[in-house]
Write a structure and sequence with these properties.
Length: 580
């Protein structure tokens, strides 16, 4: 059975036709879900960062506002002219300023310091730090600085001078107000922003580096910086960065107050883990289902189609005539009853056909013998009358010759125990037959020219004599004189060929065509028994390609050719056909 018609193949194709569209649809659904989740994550992170950025800017703006409010306080103006006051009044002014520093510092959630410096007298008031010198560098905007080269303590600082625009315009100023706070405030602020394990915000500046929370993963942040710097575009946005075979969604937004960039990153693997897990479970389930389906299809193929195939194959062989075929029963198969029933049926058919075939062979053998007995009396009567006439005429040589040929003729005819003979023996028999007719008619000539290599080839008995008899009876019997018969034999194109030609009346093309048609069909009443029998015996004895052919003879009559293949020149069986 062809592979494409195999039941196993069809089941697998059906499974694939079911699973492939489902898998494609699920893959597309998974892809869409991932994109939706990523888009939602981007929007959520960016909205959150915008809120955090605004809160951070609000803190810086609040401290800047407080610093500006202090600059307009009356006690600050008094401190600018501290030299005109007596010591007691000076202490009161300083105490009032410190109280206001503490009050304003308490208005913000961050720990911060306020300081004031007089540039002319180098006098200063500080809340916490001990630096009394006038700042050498004025920070008009918020800047990140260190306490010193030997310390890692960093802080944000901003200055306000009096008069207010003097520093910008390059004019001298007599008072510097300062606000500062350590980056610990921002570290705590970033720590509070870590709502879950997937969030780790930090601040980034091209000039100053990063500010991170105390529990941040600085290794990942360090690896994120380079691709982040290469892909930051605009005031806010998103970047997908791959680190150590893992993708991170990085969101960023720039702070207007600081000029720093607030960054937060999220590992996509962790966020998409439930969706990825569902996808993997689906594919795993689909693979398990496919494997189980293939196993079920294989079991169905093994236990159903294979037995059916064997039965179909066995039935085909029975149809072709091989009745010896048997199907081997399978172990624990529901088809064993069908197999055993088929084997019994095939055995019964084989037995019945063998009996019928043997009976047919016996009948055909009896028919051949009957045919011989039918031919013999008529020919014997004629021959005896010829002997009688010769004896009356005292033609003793003719009587002797007739007796010898007649004896040899009937000796060959009556040897019916052997179904085979050689071409040599058959031709000797034909010579006796023709010599008898020569003695009878005195107007017959014949010639036998058969190559030596053909003479010892075995053929069925009485295969040539019916053709010679037809040539004599139907072709030459009406001629008054000069009857001629030519028998030739040769090997041509891997075939044995015997030619029987006569100079009788012959047949035209239409008659030859009708005769060939009749000898290849079941025998009818008007079909010549001898010619039909020889053709059928050649076919059944030597197989396809063997038989009789008819053509006009160069002698003027009919040419009959007996031909069969060389590789089938020796057969194990001779079949005679009942000609009714």
């Amino acid at each position: 059975m062809k592979w494409k018609n195999n039941l196993f193949t069809k089941i697998i194709l059906v499974l694939l036709l079911l699973l492939v569209p489902i898998s494609v649809l699920y893959t597309y659904s998974h892809y869409t879900s991932v994109k939706v989740i990523e888009e939602e994550l981007k929007n959520r992170n960016l909205d959150r960062l915008l809120i955090v950025r605004n809160q951070l800017d609000a803190h810086f703006h609040q401290i800047s506002t407080l610093l500006l409010a202090l600059s307009g306080d009356s006690s600050i103006n008094q401190y600018r002219n501290i030299a005109i006051y007596n010591p007691y009044e000076s202490v009161e002014i300083k105490k009032e300023i410190l109280d206001k520093f503490q009050f304003y510092g308490g208005l913000t959630p961050w720990n911060n310091d306020f300081s004031i410096y007089l540039t002319k007298t180098s006098e200063s008031i500080q809340t916490n730090h001990k630096n009394t010198a006038v700042p050498e560098e004025i920070a008009i905007d918020w800047e990140l600085r260190k306490d010193g080269p030997k310390t890692n303590k960093r802080y944000f600082i901003k200055h306000l001078v009096q008069p207010i625009n003097s520093y910008i315009q390059g004019e001298p100023f007599d008072l510097v107000m300062e606000a500062r706070f350590p980056i610990g405030n921002i570290e705590h602020f970033l720590e509070d922003l870590k709502l879950n394990q997937y969030s780790d915000p930090f601040l980034y500046s091209d000039q100053f580096g990063t500010i991170v929370s105390r529990s941040s993963n600085q290794d990942i942040i360090h690896k994120l910086l380079k691709p982040l710097m290469e892909n930051i575009k605009g005031e806010s946005g998103h970047v997908t960065v791959g680190i150590d075979n893992e993708k991170y969604l990085v969101s960023y937004v720039k702070s207007n107050s600081l000029g720093w960039t607030l960054v937060d990153y999220t590992p996509l693997k962790d966020i998409l883990y439930p969706v990825t897990l569902n996808r993997n479970l689906f594919y795993f389930s689909a693979a398990i289902l496919l494997c189980l389906s293939i196993l079920a299809a294989f079991l169905l193929y093994k236990n159903v189609q294979l037995p059916v195939n064997r039965l179909v194959h066995a039935i085909s062989r029975v149809k072709e005539g091989d009745y010896s075929v048997r199907v081997k029963p399978l172990q624990d198969s529901d088809f064993n009853m069908m197999v055993s029933t088929f084997n019994e049926m095939a055995e019964q058919i084989e037995t019945l056909i063998e009996e019928v075939y043997k009976e047919k062979i016996r009948y055909q053998d009896a028919h051949v013998k009957q045919l011989q007995s039918q031919i013999n009396p008529h020919f014997l009567y004629n021959s005896l009358f010829i002997l009688k006439s010769m004896a009356k005429l005292n033609n003793y040589q003719g009587v002797e010759a007739m007796s010898v040929h007649l004896g040899k003729y009937y000796r060959y005819m009556t040897r019916i125990e052997n179904e085979y003979s050689t071409i040599r023996e058959e031709l000797d028999f034909i010579k006796n037959y023709l010599e008898i007719h020569v003695l009878r008619m005195q107007r017959l000539q014949y010639k036998i020219d058969v190559s030596e290599e053909l003479l010892d080839i075995p053929i069925p008995r009485l295969l040539i004599q019916p053709i010679v008899e037809n040539a004599f009876v139907h072709g030459l019997d009406s001629r008054v004189q000069d009857g001629r018969i030519l028998i030739k034999g040769e090997t041509m194109h891997e075939q044995y060929q015997l030619f029987i030609e006569d100079n009788g009346k012959g047949l035209n093309d239409n008659e030859i065509h009708e005769l060939m048609k009749k000898i290849n069909q079941p025998m009818e009443k008007d079909t010549g028994c001898g010619v039909w029998n020889v053709h059928q015996r050649l076919y059944y004895h030597f197989g396809d390609g063997a038989g009789l052919q008819f053509a006009p003879s160069t002698l003027g009559g009919l040419k009959v050719t007996l031909h069969w293949s060389r590789n089938k020149g020796e057969s194990e069986d001779v079949q005679s056909i009942n000609c009714g």
